[in-house]
């Protein structure tokens, strides 16, 4: 995984993600519906908001390379173990995992090593929820070079949806179900934000309220992938 020093207090102040934002409620519901773990690992757990949500219902641990983030994650989810190194993960210790906006931060070579460690740490048939920005999606087309995925300099691995499907399958995690998060980073047009949200955001809102994967890949900001850990 990349150097943890990049993900310090200044990083979270700049992107506003050190909060329990609404999207985490959706991811928590998707884990319960599609992953259904008895022990789950939150890969790249950051400052621990999703980890804490997962731990309310299921034993949950985290993996986080940033010492700053890991300290906050341990405070927010005190019953969880937060690992600093993927090589420390217990073999076969988990039957589910999440990697929510994590893989795009890691170049292919270290990412391959991380997926190898994750394969060892999960049992055959385990499922995972993976969320990554989609540079081939509709949001990128509407926002152009101002697309949200381009604004974070730590996004060093922006693959389109189809490339992620192939990459994950090649590393032992074939995709079982694929969807999109929809359009939510308004505005996407010259309309006032409330009108633009009505024009573009209703499918996203319907998926959020349903807690199900309803939107087709490529129709929003990010890809949402349910993967299954293949046999050795």
Strand order of the largest sheet: 3-2-1-4-5-7-6
Helix content: 25-40%
Shape verdict: globular
Number of helices: 9
End-to-end C-alpha gap: 23 Å
Cα radius of gyration in angstroms: 17 Å
Segments where pLDDT lies below 50 for 5+ residues?
none
Report the sheet-strand fraction.
Answer: 15-25%
Largest sheet: 7 strands, mixed
Structural class, please? Answer: alpha/beta
Order of helices and strands: HHEHEHEEHEHHEHHE
What is the averaged pLDDT score? 95
Please report the total strand number as a whole number: 7
Description:
Helix 3 links the parallel strand 1 and strand 2. The protein contains nine helices and seven strands. A seven-stranded mixed beta sheet has the order 3-2-1-4-5-7-6, sandwiched between helices. By secondary structure, the chain is an alpha/beta fold. The mean pLDDT is 95. Helix content is 37%, strand content 18%.
